[in-house]
Amino acid sequence: MEKIPTLFERDGAFRVVDRPRAECAWVFAGEGAATEKLDGTNVRLTVRSGQLVRVEKRRNPSAAQKRAGVVDGWYVDTAEDAAEDRWILAAARGTDVRGWPDGEHPCEALGPRIQGNPLQLDGHLCLPFDREAPVYEGVPRDYAGLRAYLAGLESRFAPGALAEGIVFHHPDGRRAKLKRKDFPQSA
């Protein structure tokens, strides 16, 4: 699981500044499609014959692992008896996978007991990145435009709630992200 780069460089307070990251130049060249960035927990569901057979959660490297050069996270199995996995498993069970093709599907687990439920959902579910990512048309591709756009971007998954941000997807698999909270409060 590769970490998705943020579109702009960051300052000392970890806020974005009006300086595009070199590896995201394709976004500023107008390439790729923008989808909603969801504020939940990254999980992976494995489906076989329309049945959920495995639920994994993302594990990020520890500080020591980061110092040793490990930068990307990985997936680990959830456990039925682990309190910290309770709501991830509820989201997985609340997701209808009957029409999904066999395979591993990265998803965002969402719901009332996950990440403070910013979308104000009534139930727990998983939204697969590879199946349910509606595209936003006409998204600006510059700092000021993106800041203004994200300030009022409504979620497609929970109308009335603000989207966390956007993720640009290039046809070759590259991705780049930007969250509303990445911007400084005053600029």
Arithmetic mean of pLDDT: 92
User: What is the structural class?
Assistant: alpha+beta
Low-confidence stretches: none
Overall 3D geometry?
A: globular
- Share of helix among residues? 10-25%
Approximate strand percentage: 25-35%
Main sheet summary: 5 strands, antiparallel
Radius of gyration: 17 Å
Largest sheet, spatial ordering of strands? 6-5-4-7-8
Number of strand segments: 11
Count of helices? 4
SSE succession: EEHEEEHEHEEEHEE
Q: Helices, strands, pairings?
A:
Elements: E1 8-10, E2 16-20, H1 25-28, E3 33-37, E4 41-48, E5 51-59, H2 63-67, E6 74-77, H3 86-93, E7 103-110, E8 125-128, E9 135-136, H4 143-151, E10 165-169, E11 175-179
Antiparallel strand pairs: 1-2, 3-9, 3-10, 4-5, 4-7, 5-6, 7-8, 10-11
Features:
four-stranded antiparallel β-sheet
Quick description:
By secondary structure, the protein is an alpha+beta fold.
Can you put this structure into words, describing what you see?
The protein is of the alpha+beta class and 187 residues long. The chain has helices spanning 25-28, 63-67, 86-93, 143-151, and strands at residues 8-10, 16-20, 33-37, 41-48, 51-59, 74-77, 103-110, 125-128, 135-136, 165-169, 175-179. The strands form three sheets. A five-stranded antiparallel β-sheet has the order 6-5-4-7-8. The mean pLDDT is 92.
